[in-house]
Amino acid sequence: MIETAKNLERAGADFIVIPCNTAHYFLGDLEAEISIPVLNMVEETRKTVKEQFPLAGKVGLLATTGTIKSRIYHKAFEEIDWEVVVPDKISQEVVMDAIYGEKGLKAGYFEEPKKKIIKIARSLIDRGAKVILAGCTEVSLVLKSEDLSVPVLDPTHILAKAAVREAYPQD
Question: Global pTM?
Answer without folding.
Answer: 0.94
